[in-house]
Design brief:
Layout lengths: L1 E6 L7 H4 L8 E2 L2 E2 H11 L4 E6 L3 H9 L1 H4 L3 E3 L6 E3 L8 E6 L6 H7 L1 H4 L5 E5 L2 E3 L3 H11 L3 E6 L7 E5 L2 E6 L9 E2 L3 E3 L17 H8 L3 E6 L3 E3 L3 H13 L8
Parallel strand pairs: 1-4, 1-8, 4-7, 10-15
Antiparallel strand pairs: 2-3, 5-6, 8-14, 9-16, 10-13, 10-14, 11-12
Length: about 260
């Protein structure tokens, strides 16, 4: 089963970094966030990826073209260019790098992948900027039970500020940046059937607007509610938070 990762956006909120690299290549703990996301799926034995490239897609291509030499010991014969790797590096992924256009929007990127996906049946999809401790196998099982065209993962994002409860002017309870108690949002981590392509039309289709709205109206969209860790990387504040978590050694999304 293929895993689609939308990795073509410009990431304008990270202008200092995205002037030279696409947002999915911004590093957390020395590795691109794209690498973290792929490891989440690979842990659940989903190891065939379709990376929908766009803005500075060559940077992602170069990273994976150099991935094995950069992570392995090898011997090179300069006379004939032959390279012998000393041992497998343990990463047995298959990665399809597909150019889906510089200015193509989210639904348009998926639409461009239709020839590659439509005959394969069920596929997984996510964005190239969010991590979670979600159990992908459970998500897929949930999708198969309900039989609809699409499943998205609903999450409760971490609050930006701490909260307090009072008795008069006395603080009776204080919580630093808790998970919000209500207000589910779309956290990505989709499962979809090929019938979803009937809801996509052209490069300027925004998946999160008309397609998902019509799928919901047609009774074809279900939500897998994930109560655990989830964090997107929309801002520098988010990146610094993820870096801090990684450096702490207690990393919820590091399930591999």
């Amino acid at each position: 089963m293929k895993v689609i990762i939308l990795a073509g956006g410009r990431g304008t909120r990270f202008a200092e970094e995205t002037s030279v690299k696409p947002k999915p290549m911004i590093e957390i703990g020395g590795y691109p966030i794209l690498w973290h996301i792929m490891n989440i799926y690979a842990h659940h034995s989903f190891k065939e990826f379709v990376v929908a490239l766009g803005y500075k897609g060559d940077v992602i291509k170069d990273y994976f073209l150099r991935y094995r030499p950069s992570n392995s010991d090898f011997t090179v014969n300069l006379a004939n260019g032959e390279i012998n790797f000393h041992k497998p590096n343990g990463t047995d992924w298959i990665i399809h790098m597909i150019d889906t256009g510089i200015d193509t929007l989210t639904g348009g990127r998926l639409h461009r992948l239709e020839p590659l996906l439509k005959s394969d049946g069920t596929f997984l999809m996510t964005y190239g900027d969010g991590v979670s401790d979600i159990n992908i196998s459970d998500l897929l099982a949930f999708h198969r039970r309900h039989g609809k065209l699409a499943t998205l993962t609903a999450v409760r994002p971490p609050a930006r500020f701490g909260t307090m409860k009072f008795e008069g002017n006395q603080v009776s309870e204080f919580k630093e940046k808790p998970q919000t108690g209500e207000g589910w949002i779309n956290g990505g981590f989709y499962v979809m059937e090929p019938g979803v392509f009937d809801y996509l039309h052209g490069d300027q289709t925004i998946l999160e607007l008309d397609p998902l709205e019509r799928l919901a109206a047609d009774g074809q969209l279900m939500a897998y509610k994930h109560e655990g860790f989830w964090q997107c990387m929309d801002t520098l504040r988010d990146k610094l938070r993820l870096e801090s978590i990684w450096n702490s050694g207690a990393v919820p999304w590091k399930v591999w």
